[in-house]
TrEMBL record:
Biological classification of the source: Bacteria, Pseudomonadati, Bacteroidota, Flavobacteriia, Flavobacteriales
Keywords annotated in UniProt: Membrane, Transmembrane, Transmembrane helix
Protein name: Histidine kinase N-terminal 7TM region domain-containing protein
Organism of this sequence: Robiginitalea biformata (strain ATCC BAA-864 / DSM 15991 / KCTC 12146 / HTCC2501)
Transmembrane intervals: 12-29, 36-56, 76-95, 107-127, 133-153, 165-185, 205-223
Superkingdom of origin: Bacteria
Length: 234
């Protein structure tokens, strides 16, 4: 097995961004260790590990998680599980942070819809070998709505369009931008999956830009944040 680190980094340029995010989240941990965001270092580490495992299983078939050689480079199982964990964590955070009854009801409904989609989707798409389209669309849409509701709530509290010292505001902005673009990309990929063709370069580049924007927002938020223990512990 030959490994060219430079070529891998050029193909997956977002990996260093994930690594920097993990380190910065740990460094800033004293500013939010007793808030609802205290699990961020764990989540970001899990994100980095998921991407590394996904790349390894895709690029090096000898490390496949499946015994069947036909599915040796399939890694959707890893990402299907990741989406559910990522959505579940932020649904919980938004539900606890936003005090509006209507917003909490919407998040509960969205969480229920995601659970239903996660149960139904495997009936027509393999959870191990295929992207769970219904689950991805539902989870992404609810994340976008939840993050936007939080930004609206913060505006009502602070009186400003954007609170640049609030970590969750930056995270919410990144989530809203990324998943708004991720939904059409996921639909496009699913439509063309039966053809067996690789994604066009432009689609891959757009996805990478969205990743950079999302984690760029998170990094800025971690860097500029003030201690928010009272606000997020409510």
């Amino acid at each position: 097995m030959e490994v060219n680190p430079i070529s891998l980094l050029l193909k997956y340029p977002f990996l260093p961004v994930y690594l920097v995010t993990v380190f910065l989240a740990i460094w800033r941990y004293p500013r939010y260790f007793d808030t609802l965001l205290r699990l961020l270092p764990v989540l970001f580490t899990y994100t980095l590990a998921t991407e590394i495992l996904g790349i390894i299983t895709y690029e090096f078939t000898e490390f496949s998680i499946f015994l069947n050689e036909f599915f040796s480079y399939y890694n959707w199982l890893i990402y299907n599980v990741y989406l559910l964990i990522f959505c579940g964590y932020f649904f919980f955070v938004y539900y606890r942070v936003i005090p509006w009854r209507a917003a909490r009801t919407a998040i509960l409904i969205g969480s229920t819809l995601l659970a239903i989609a996660a149960l139904i989707n495997p009936l027509y798409q393999s959870f191990q070998y295929e992207v769970q389209l219904g689950t991805y669309i539902t989870g992404s849409a609810v994340l976008v709505v939840s993050s936007m509701m939080y930004l609206i709530y913060r505006r009502s509290v602070s009186g400003r369009a954007f609170t640049d010292r609030d970590l969750l505001s930056w995270i919410s902005l990144g989530i809203a931008i990324f998943y708004s673009g991720f939904i059409p990309i996921t639909i496009y990929r699913n439509m063309h999956a039966p053809t067996g063709l690789m994604d066009p370069v432009v689609v891959t580049r757009i996805l990478q830009v969205l990743i950079f924007v999302m984690y760029g927002c998170i990094l800025v938020g971690l860097w500029r944040m003030r201690p928010q223990r009272v606000f997020l512990s409510n």
